Amino acid sequence: MASFCRDCLADVPERAARCAGCGSPRIARHGELAHMAIAHVDCDAFYATIEKRDDPSLADKPVIIGGGHRGVVSTACYIARTFGVRSAMPMFEARRLYLTGTERLHGMMPAKTLARFAKQVETEIGITVSIGLSENKFLAKIASDLDKPRGFSMLSLHEAPSFLAPRPATFIWGVGKAMGAQLARAGFRTIADLQRADETELMRRFGTEGLRLARLSCGIDTRTVNPDRETKSVSAETTFSADIADFRALERRLWELSEKVSGRLKASELAGATVTLKLKSADFRLRTRARSLSAPTQLAAKIFDAGRELLARETGSTRFRLIGIGVSALAPAQDADPADLVDQRGKRSAAAEHAVDRLREKFGHAAVVRGIALEEDNSE
Questions:
Q1: For position 102, what pLDDT does the model report?
Q2: Do 205 and 333 fall within a single domain?
Q3: Which of 17, 173, 210, 301 has its CA 20 to 30 A from that of 378?
């Protein structure tokens, strides 16, 4: 059985518990190791890990990253997870739980290349990753969650059916509560139930989704790995510490978010022709409104103007807990904000914004602040 040390990459005898070279107990071992070449690399509690890297005093403390009292947990370190804290959990619940507890290319097999990569990330960047290795994307993603943090897990296509069988149908990627309930009503509660079903019968009942379920239930995933996945949209949003109904207060936050989106577009050398406003009311109902522009833009002022127009139609007595703005229908930066021979104001506005960008690049973001961002806010 193929085995190697994840730290020094030396080959290790089949039954050895430690590497004879460096003494490490971190051994990767699997009968089909040399045949697995698709991996899912997952940063371990990324935002929390960055905080610990930048502030070593937090190394042995529970760290939760999230949005105030009313937001949700973005990530929690593994110490915090021992208290029951999980990603996407409301922050007030996370605080309660915490307080309750007292508070080829490379000349070596893909597995070795990945182990070397994980070590480089840890050494050079100061964060850890967990790697799942398999023969397709579906199984690699599952494997990456099996041994966190600093994990290196392998799940072969041969092992997949027996590994998946006892798990609920909702374990399959893309099967949510609604689809899970529909499957349960049809008698498919576990993945084993799907494995026993005829592929044609599943397709008759659930259409193309039935074919996908039939194959994934056996670990079969024919999707290819695309390392150059195209960005579809750029967005930013914020959750308020108290609900807001006032238009001016919402407008101020919209400007701040528009500047963030604009900065990300410029950094990525992109522009977008569709602006989408996102609002979530106090009763958690989501609203999205979109407007198409005459040409792609990467200017904060144009993004804000389009979003402000959409916002004006939604405000009144409704109180909102979240606002977001995004840009889609992306295009290269060279297509952004073409000159308007009729309206020269747009040209002057673009020149002014780019001048502000240069000043901020040299002196920092606070060097130039638009008046709307300085208005006193008494809405919360």
A1: 38
A2: no
A3: 301
